[in-house]
Design goal:
The structure is a homotetramer. Chain A has about 400 residues and is α/β, with parallel strands linked by helices. Chain A has 14 helices and 14 strands. The first copy, chain A, folds into two domains: about 140 residues, Aspartate Aminotransferase, domain 1, CATH 3.90.1150.10; about 240 residues, Aspartate Aminotransferase, domain 2, CATH 3.40.640.10. In chain A, about 40% of the residues lie in helices and about 15% in strands. Chain A is globular, with a radius of gyration of 21 Å.
Chain lengths: ~400, ~400, ~400, ~400
């Protein structure tokens, strides 16, 4: 029988802070009441602050981040439009699959799982696209499957350098609110996220930032859509209402989570993620394990995908952690299944929790058959957390 | 300042029972844990019992009932398919609008707001459709805007009598779980509902029952879809998982609400709705007001749409109830705006609550300028609830 | 099976406001943490505002109001001390019984159940007590069993007029926070209340206001005490701590309930109780029933004790309300058992709830065999609530 | 700003399991309802199972464990009765102080803080007490201040061996439900506990097991008492009611916590405490620190009191843990202040949490100036938890 706190280290849905849980524990209310907008209108503004945008419009669709992926596509593109996408992990692969299903002509660049978005190849193709046939470029800012953070600003530069007019789509589901994300500075046109990662809520809201340029595109885009129609939302959101029943409890939770983020300070939240992630990585390295991410400049501050030694089955590591230690790690997805386990270190987190993750990881690895020198992982993280270890030069450069 | 219990009588989202609230107040958990299916798999079975189906498959999409509308259409029809729909209230009108947006050729039958689905006209058109050009017939079982319950079984008979093969779509958002609904008996192919009405949960789940025939149609249907794709759900649901992050808290709530329904007994739940609704209607009639529903055989047991006298503005009634008495009534939608207020009487409800609704309605009507003889409404309901009034013959026949 | 909201009209424990429930739903915390006082110290100040005292000290004992009764006695009196008390209801009777058990020499004045504290008789006895043998006078401000509010200020005047030095003990369990109570103005020395009435919390805190004079008495009082020792509390409370583990969740709830009270305004809270109580009383009278309270000047604004006709058993009324209508009324206590039911109308309450109480009362009375003309009770209350009825002259004078 | 889970390792109040939190989050209810006993009566039985008694009666007083101390004394003893007590930690000292305040003649045996109850000295004095002047012997089963578990069975044997008739009082506040406790087998007459330790609830219930012999004594005991009077409770508890407003929410929580205990199995709960405590102790020893408990046979399985090196201030350790790592350790009480910090390891706990405690302890010790070789503490615990370390022979013998 399970006892004690659940140790949740999947890279989403993430731990819900107590204040958010409190806030959501409310009776039902009238979503058409005259003062309903007092609750909702501020949420749009708060999300704009999280996206670091002043010019974009924000949408909250009842659904998941996947729904927001679809909303982004169907509202701004035409059937048959050519789009440029990379596949370098499970989530970028799924987004490309969705684009194909929705009738886009997807120009796919495959990169190793562990690499970032292939900026140079994107730049090359955009430069070669003299007629502007590429209507949109898609970037998975943080590939949750591999623990890789890509350089969105560099993709923007690539577009600008060849004066390319394509829309820039960014999947920020596991980065926004946790890793530096700058919608306006980076000229992101469609920024996708969900409620269940850095926003520390249950799943249920697909969130979308849409630039003025993308809003303009939505007026002429001919792809079929109904549930995810921007225009319906625009009309109702003006007063803080929604075209269909919204998840009111999540709005109360979002109010609380935005308050938490702004009280801590968005920059401080991001710095905390960097600090805690570095502790986890040092612990992992001290255990003698390697990350999937190919280079330190790609390390994700929200999730670490960790390769187990070849003779070990990562599923056994995850299974032991779950069944014996009430601890959930993320599994290796698709081609990484069995080779990788993932530690999500995003959202409502602190040093003690990261040390729990590393300690349980050591025990679970031992139970899966690895020779583990207990304590090395936590020790490396403790040195970092207490300031006894030196800060890494590289990360500063990378961010 | 508002004090005391909120009196929520909108026809959804409905009051959340305490046990459901308790059940949802849980920390986040791993939606890919090996035992996650223990939570979810039973929910599909429970929903089948609520739909009264043994043969259909059930889907739970993160989203609203509107999303389930879309899922039903996009998974089973082809672009340009002809479908037969009626418009006799705001929700049937919106569904027809969605069908058009998604590229269907909608054959619309307009009926008065207050009428039911025009079964005879449907029968006539289906009979005339010798080539089977009509691919689907849509029925809004309970038109929430007008408080009208239509006769789904009669539409099924109309289809059967001319051996018509069209799929039967039914919007049961405000009926399923509250008003008798029989998916198998009535040969419903796509039954749509949401979490926030008879299931007494927050919004956030679009629920769909899909017949074997409709599942077969989904394998060849060519309409574009991604988020709402049945096949992805089928694959993942087998083990109790989902293709994207599901709203786990709602699943816990659904477990509790299904338990409540089955402990009371689905038949008893339906009988209770009938009894409480009759009390409300008697109260309304004792106040000298009329329902929008044209005939007692159409009266909805989940919502009553009530016409105010011509000299009264229903918005003022609703406003007074809300601002002075912490009570939410539903407003008149679209063409009924200002002429109608609605009392939702579905979900977690009892006699005392219905009497509160009637009492506050009397006070709010008085404050909006109507000459009210206080106490008549509640008195009529009390007579009914205590058994001092006779049961209506008509309802028995109608149901 | 019970469905819908529970209609709770016992005169305590009272309905818990949602914000209070939210506030209490927190994980456990360290009651010796350096910042624990940030939570607790303000609570003492808030309670002083509720007691309308600037000079008294406030104690919060883990326990019930009965515990605070005991704390008041054991900390300020010596064994064998003579005290003056009245018995005019169940709670004043129990307090006198406690005083005897604790070794006091209780001079009891018996008055009819339905009368207030016999001020004139108290005055007479105090005037006659030339040697000052009476060490304390006890007043039950609001006798919850009979729905009678007594005149504490008049008892103070009686003391002052004969320059009597006795301590003035007041049981304000069902008045403080709901009915005007003025500790400093009235020279109350020991003001007793609990968390579960006007403070709208679960039971668990016995609350005590102690005047400077009573604090001085506590330094020499020789009655045995340990758990309820003021000195231990004084010492620890200075930093916001407690001599033994306090009910932290209740402190969070108290923070929320004090916020609610001060946001509404204490005067407004009291006015609201008066207004709602008047509605209930008018309803009761319109039903043809009488209150236990002997005179309108004694009517309690927190609870109405209602006599049923002689041929009716009040227990059946209460039973029918509970079993059929999910409604709890208070029962007749001790000698009033079977003759009386009580409607508590205090705490988190509004007009709709009062109308529910009256409506259910009519149905329950009918089911218990009374000939009820349905709707009269609610109608009278509605007239009052909507301002269609005239304000009673008497109440203004009385308060 | 604090983020992430709070790491609570004070030896009470302990972490509240989620199911208990859920259970307590209920609206208020009528504590005199006819079915109220359905909730409460089973609780008495459940507590008897936890106390391992079939013959004793159980009381639940609104209050803290300190209140239950008082209830035990005042209901069974006469003023001036001689009682035998030991002082070997802060809580045994406080109990002795209470006994004196309440007018007992306390024969105190002082023992080192870190020693157990001086069984031999008790035996000697009991043997010498030929006239049976000692009316009661008090044992602090688990001295929370020092992390020492004493041998209650040995005290019983000492009583039996000289055929002494004194009542046996046991403070089991921090043992019952976590450390083996056998009321009937050990002939305990008054077993005291509270809700906020092994029962995993908020503070608010003082719980008492009372043997038949002690119940008989209560009928003639002459000590003054009112709030804590057994007889009032006995009378009302028969139907599941209480003489004053009980903390209903805690009853719901207790239902849940008893369910958790019995689902896991009381023996398994005790074994888990032993296993987790052993891990913590091994970790502490691997850090080079010593426990206050003088001998392994005295080690408490619910709390470890840990001496810091002489040059370190334990308050700084506790302060660093709290302010930097959101972690609460217990402080050194009274004479141990600054010399000791305590890790509570009782209630709802698992391996990961113990490792968090050890990891944070290492960091906090380092920040307080100790030279710490990071990772040693967690490593020793991991070896134990994974079975890589050998089981200690001694513990088996001791328990």
């Amino acid at each position: 029988m399970r006892t004690g706190q659940t140790h949740l280290f999947v890279p989403g849905p993430t731990n819900i802070p107590e204040r958010v849980r409190q806030a959501m524990n409310v009776p039902m209310q009238d979503m058409r009441a005259p003062d309903f907008g007092e609750l909702t209108l501020d949420l749009f503004d708060g999300l704009k602050r999280v996206l670091r945008t002043e010019r974009a419009r924000v949408f909250m669709f009842p659904g998941s981040g996947t729904g927001a992926w679809e909303a982004a596509i169907t509202n701004t593109l035409d059937p048959g439009d050519r789009v440029l996408m990379a596949r370098h992990g499970q989530f970028s692969t799924l987004w490309a699959q969705m684009a194909e299903r929705l009738g886009l002509e997807v120009e796919v660049v495959d990169a190793p799982w562990g690499a970032g978005v292939p900026v140079k190849e994107f730049a090359r193709r955009l430069g070669a696209d003299r007629e502007g046939r590429i209507k949109a470029v898609f970037v998975t800012h943080n590939e949750t499957a591999t623990g890789v953070t890509s350089d969105v600003a560099a993709v923007r530069r690539a577009l600008d350098e060849c004066f390319h007019d394509a829309l820039l789509f960014v999947d920020g589901v596991s980065s926004i609110g946790s890793i530096d994300f700058r919608m306006d500075d980076w000229g992101v046109d469609l920024a996708v996220t969900g409620s269940q990662k850095g926003l520390m809520l249950p799943a249920g809201l697909g969130i979308l930032g849409v630039s003025e340029k993308a809003m303009a595109a939505s007026e002429t885009a001919t792809m079929r859509r109904a549930y995810f129609e921007f225009a319906d939302m625009v009309k109702m959101n003006a007063g803080g209402y929604f075209p269909y029943t919204p998840p009111t409890q999540l709005f109360h939770g979002l109010r609380a989570s935005l308050d938490l983020i702004f009280e801590e300070g968005l920059d401080a939240v991001i710095a905390r993620h960097r600090r805690l992630a570095e502790g986890v990585r040092r612990g992992v390295q001290a255990m003698g394990l390697e990350l999937v991410a190919e280079h330190p400049s790609l390390y994700s501050n929200t999730v670490s995908a960790i390769r187990v030694p070849p003779e070990i089955d990562a599923r056994e590591v995850i299974g032991a952690a779950y069944s014996r230690y009430n601890t959930s790690f993320g599994s290796g997805l698709a081609r990484l299944d069995g080779r990788v386990f993932r530690i999500g270190h995003l959202g409502d987190l602190n040093e003690g929790m990261c040390l729990t993750a590393l300690s349980v990881a050591e025990m679970a690895l031992a139970e899966a058959g690895m020779q583990v020198d207990f304590g090395r992982g936590p020790a490396a993280a403790m040195s970092w957390f207490t300031g006894a270890a030196e800060a890494p030069e590289l990360r500063v450069a990378a961010e």
